[in-house]
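job 3f2a | input accepted
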Amino acid sequence: MVGTIEAPVDTTTTYTNGSQPHHTNGATVEEKLDELRALLGKTDGNPLKIVGVGAGAWGSVFCALLQDAYGHLRDKVQIRIWRRPGRAVDRATAEHLFEVINSREDVLRRLIRRCAYLKYVEGRLGDRTLYADEILRDGFCLNMIETPLCPLKVVTNLQEAVWDADLVINGLPSTETREVFEEISKYWKERIGHPVIISLAKGIEASLDPVPRIITPTQMISNATGIPIENILYLGGPNIASEIYNKEYANARICGSDKWRKHLAKFLRQPHFIVWDNGDLITHEVMGGLKNVYAIGAGMVAALTNESATSKSVYFALCTSEMIYITHLLAEEPEKLAGPLLADTYVTLLKGRNAWYGHKLAKGELSLDMGDSIKGKGTIQGVSAVNAFYELLSQDSLSVIHPEAKKSVAPVELCPILKTLHKILIKRELSTEAILQAIRDESMYDPRERIEIAQCHSLYRPTLLSPR
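job 3f2a | predicted structure (468 res):
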């Protein structure tokens, strides 16, 4: 078929990350698959079609986890992943990939067995150009080549990938989600039923007309395709993609309608990857984008202070107080979000790409002129989130009472770190050193006071998360 790279299916029952068919809460893998198939109305001889859209680190790992768990049940499920064609692997990356391959005996033997090793030798020598979709077929994600995955079926033609999909995994950055799903909608016009979509994207857009509000990736997908929001879910948690694939214990939440979330949580759950469910779709999705904002600043502080634990703790206290303040604007019951938000923030500050990006900017190893799509890392979603949250919280229609000036101000006036990040990343008026000035401002009041303001005043603005 045109645009398709098919990976031969390995019939062994031990997978690349060491996982094996298993029982979960008394149900075998096949029983979990049969339950989901029945819910989606699949009959014998009609495989459940799962399609990943976007092949960044998390999107690729997510599809690889499903392939490892269910791929051996070929008569009942087909798993494939779409990525754009034509992305060449540069010489330095090809050399590093060759080193990774030769350091892993299991990967080396697999490639030799599949007659795929020679092309990596040629890529290492510069005698051949490797392509991202080509190496993904062999289990190498361009954004995460140090963590080999299982072989995947890769499709480079979007129409071919999605037209008959039953379950779609959105692994695209939030900044690309709308555009791609608008194209997908053209291929779904003749569908009788709606697919189920799980979005992994963490990012937001701001809409200011007619009233300020946040638009999340699930809303973008629904608006672009006409798929009802009850068929679109969000999965997120305090996770690093490579560590999850290497079977580090992790947990996540799948958020959305009662109709799907519990069944999908059961289907996705593995012994090392626990998936809970929650009905608050939009708020959890927004929180996933909010932590990326402050992770960039954390990376800057770490780089500028030579990893000073004291400076990082000062920043953490201030940024979490701002996040708590913002959650009180967004959520009617913000206390329910405290644990998940802080956990996700913590892991992102430790090892996430947004903190890495801030660190590299402050060290001068990256520049803003390079954009927010970085080789080997993918899209830095915190940059667009900084702009979106700043625009929203700058609106006078959302005004709050300033605790000292005792007058109405836009909410962003109580978020000095967000304001500073906007001046650094978006307006480009300040250097990265300004983040240190923001956290060392002698006139800044105790972050506890900001939390008390949030808790003692009625800040909730329901229109911020309204669907229209």
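job 3f2a | Residues 1-24 have pLDDT under 50 and may be disordered.
job 3f2a | closed
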